Amino acid sequence: ALIEEAQKAEIIDADDNLVWLHDFQVNLTLHQRAMIDELLAAFAAAPYAPPNAQDSLRTLGDSEELLDYLLESGQLVRLGGGVLFHQGDFDAMRQQVIEFARAHGSITLAQARDLFQTSRKYVQALLEELDAQRVTRRAGDERVLRIA
User: Fold this and answer.
1) Which domains does the chain have, with CATH numbers?
2) Which of 93, 90, 94, 122 is nearest to 109 (CA)?
């Protein structure tokens, strides 16, 4: 109740795991900003086969804090198997899977792989995340939509 009152008064913000001052902003150094820009450029260059978590950490100077910052700020999304996507690319892929499944009744891993011209690793992580988000459900080798 106290946290909710402080949120209403715009003193703090909170999510399931963290509480922070309402006007708190992360201040990055120029070097940190340059590493983040380099990593985001790598994601932009290969939206359907982006760097994995290990490669991303390497680009960020092995800084877990910077990777956490990108995840918590919603710039990147972490899926299973060490797969990361830029949030915008993940959202676009999600929409394409929905549209394909609507048009064809379902989508298989192979069809999704061909749709995005990427490897099984990325598509499997994507489809499993969509299952977890209850967008799709697995029915044998196919994914069918759970949403209208």
Assistant:
1) 27-148 (1.10.10.10)
2) 122
Structural tokens at position 112: 């999704």
From the first residue on, what is the mean pLDDT of each consecutive set of 10 residues in the chain (148 residues)? 79 71 76 96 98 96 94 94 96 98 97 97 97 95 89
Q: Which of 32, 15, 125 is nearest to 74 (CA)?
A: 15
Count Cβ atoms below 10 Å from residue 147 Cβ, excluding itself.
11
Cα 88 to Cα 148: distance, rounded to the nearest angstrom: 22
Smallest CA-to-CA distance from 132 within 65, 55, 86, 79 is with 79
The C-alpha angle 56, 54, 124, rounded to 5 degrees, equals 95
CB 54, CB 64: distance < 8 Å: no
**Exposed / middle / buried, residue 40 (Cβ in 10 Å: 0-12, 13-18, 19+):** middle
Bridge pairing between strands 136-139 and 142-145: antiparallel
Identify whether the C-beta of residue 145 lies closer than 8 Å to the C-beta of residue 136. yes
